[in-house]
Design goal:
Distance between the termini: 42 Å
Family: Belongs to the glycosyl hydrolase 100 family.
Number of domains: 1
EC number: 3.2.1.26
Keywords: Carbohydrate metabolism, Glycosidase, Hydrolase
Shape: globular
Number of helices: 18
GO biological process, one term: sucrose catabolic process
Strand content: 5-15%
Strand order of the largest sheet: 5-8-9
CATH architecture: Alpha/alpha barrel
Catalytic activity: Hydrolysis of terminal non-reducing beta-D-fructofuranoside residues in beta-D-fructofuranosides
């Protein structure tokens, strides 16, 4: 397997000379034997191949100027220049941390719990179950969820154990090819499963996989985020191991193209964002996130950027790459223009005129100023800002959603100024967003009439519980990654120390309830795997910030805005 030929200029920019991958011959009929054949890892430490500019991939566009330099997160650039060495292990497998200090006692306990959650298929680990729940009502917590496995996968990659991640990626890719029907309607070919389960037949002594594409989910909604997480995880695997042989397989190339074909197809959309149903992501119940939720848009942006460096520019891939480049430019412009909120923008919306008609309209979505919620005026600090939850005609959802904002930082959808503003907001509103247990999935909670109308009186999403303002420990890894990328690890350290006072003692709950996250969630499962894995990933990244490279993308200067619209960010 040959590495791509690159020309590294004096200022650190990379220009690709030939295509990213050399495709190996592969027998499509013998897909399963991939799981049985160990792959050698490329242990050589080398500069990342995936920080290429969109401009360098655009047809007919000139290369970036030599003066282009890295501006973002200068305090940790030394860490980000190098790939994580797969031979290094953390926590459970070493008596001491990389910094020479004794690891927290929780780390060994967490590793043991994570390993107990492993799911095997025909003798090989293929994922981790959602929760080691011993209750009678397991529901679907005994399945392997794509989104839930991501922090587990990152933990194993950071610990130098990539095979389980490779197995997972290949198995879910195989499931993508299944026929997918809900009632009599067939889903798109590129849809990835929300979860899968291994069924054991003791009579025949056989094992089979059963996938759920939304037909068994509450609300019967297909998971829009699963395909994005799959692409992001494929890039993380490639980045951490240096092994491009998996991503170059024709099956993986086709899988990525199928996922993206669902998102890049032309239709009636007038916006570059993705129109989604309620319950299509981590918030998988009715919570008023239908339309254009920030979580999906941020994951979409990140998946596009990851696919851009993983896809081969052959006959089939070149057209998709061109579509990605165009969409990224439009999507970054749209999100930074209309989803961003800081004090100045809030004041501008407060003074909006309505019923404007023409291309010169300022209030392009005809948002009624009287629809601004009272809480947002007190919530918005003088310094700080965030991407709001949703923007669509005559509707702006001003709620804070943690996952979408953290992914916006990690994918560089947020500009450096916006990323700083998001971290300023978290520090300024620590009690509201972190409280006694990190981290609020959204803020504020829906209450009273709003709760009845928006959630349909959902008894699980009552105020300050579950998705409705609950505190989710899994989000700790995303916060930590965002903190490291913005050069503010002290925020992550403070949050981790808070979590360490409760998580193990409380048996790793799925979520916490209350305005401060003081109470174990009323329906929270114990021994929740992604709570365990999220803690481990946060600890390992804080211990060795170079791990950040597998889940973070540097800013692309070609997407940088050119006009100034607010004091908190450059547009």
């Amino acid at each position: 397997m040959s590495a791509p030929n690159v020309d590294v200029s004096q200022n650190g920019n990379i220009r690709t000379i030939d295509s990213l991958f050399t495709v190996a011959e592969f027998d499509e009929s013998d897909f399963s034997r991939l799981l049985d054949r160990p792959r050698p890892l490329n242990m050589e430490r080398k500069r990342s191949f995936d920080e290429r500019s969109l401009n360098e991939l655009s047809i007919g566009m000139s290369p970036p100027p030599p003066s282009r330099t890295a501006e973002y997160s200068s305090r940790i650039n030394d860490h980000l220049e190098y790939m994580f060495s797969p031979g290094r292990r953390s926590g459970y497998n070493t008596p001491r941390s990389l910094m020479g200090f004794e690891p927290h006692p929780m780390v060994a306990e967490a590793w043991e719990a994570l390993r107990r959650s492993l799911v095997h298929f025909r003798g090989q680990p293929v994922g981790t179950i959602a929760a080691l729940d011993n209750s009678d009502e397991k529901l679907n917590y005994d399945q392997v969820f794509v989104r839930d496995f991501v922090p587990s996968a990152l933990a194993f990659l950071m610990n130098g154990e990539p095979e389980i991640v490779r197995n997972f990626l290949l198995k879910t890719l195989r499931l993508q090819s299944w026929e997918k029907k809900i009632d009599r309607f067939q889903l798109g070919e590129g849809v990835m499963p929300a979860s899968f389960k291994v069924l054991h037949d003791p009579v025949r002594n056989s094992e089979t996989l059963i996938a759920d594409f939304g037909e068994s989910a509450i609300g019967r909604v297909a998971p829009v985020d699963s395909g994005f997480w799959w692409i992001i995880l494929l890039r993380a695997y490639t980045k951490s191991t240096g092994d491009t042989s998996l991503a170059e397989l024709p099956e993986c190339q086709k899988g990525m193209r199928l996922i993206l074909s669902l998102c890049l197809s032309e239709g009636f959309d007038t916006f570059p964002t993705l129109l989604c149903a309620d319950g299509c992501c981590m918030i998988d119940r009715r919570m008023g996130v239908y339309g254009y939720p920030i979580e999906i848009q941020a994951l979409f942006f990140m998946a596009l950027r990851c696919a851009l460096v993983l896809l081969k520019q052959d006959v089939e891939g070149k057209e998709v790459v061109e579509q990605i480049v165009k969409r990224l430019h439009a999507l970054s412009y749209h999100m930074r223009s209309y989803f961003w909120l800081d004090l100045k923008q809030l004041n501008d919306i407060y003074r909006y005129k309505t019923e404007e008609y023409s291309h010169t309209a300022v209030n392009k979505f005809n948002v009624i100023p009287d629809s601004l919620p009272d809480w947002v005026f007190d919530f918005m600090p003088v310094r700080g800002g965030y991407f709001i939850g949703n923007v669509s005609p005559a509707r702006m959802d001003f709620r804070w959603f943690c996952l979408g904002n953290c992914i916006a930082i990690l994918s560089s959808l947020a500009t450096p100024e916006q990323s700083t503003a998001i971290m300023d907001l978290i520090e300024s509103r620590w009690e509201e967003l972190v409280g006694e247990m990190p981290l609020k999935v959204c803020y504020p909670a829906l209450e009273s009439h709003d709760w009845r109308i928006v959630t349909g009186s959902d008894p699980k999403n009552t105020r300050w519980s579950y998705h409705n303002g609950g505190s989710w420990p899994v989000l700790l890894w995303l916060l930590t990654a965002a903190c490291i990328k913005t050069g503010r690890p002290q925020i992550a350290r403070r949050a981790i120390e808070l979590a360490e006072t409760r998580l193990l003692k409380d048996s790793w709950p799925e979520y916490y309830d209350g305005t401060l996250g003081r109470f174990i969630g009323k329906q929270a499962r114990k021994s929740q795997t992604w709570s365990i894995a999220g803690y481990l990933v946060a600890k390992m990244m804080l211990e060795d910030p170079s791990h950040l490279g597998m889940i973070s993308l540097e800013e692309d200067k070609q997407l940088k805005p050119v006009l100034r619209r607010s004091n908190s960010w450059t547009f």
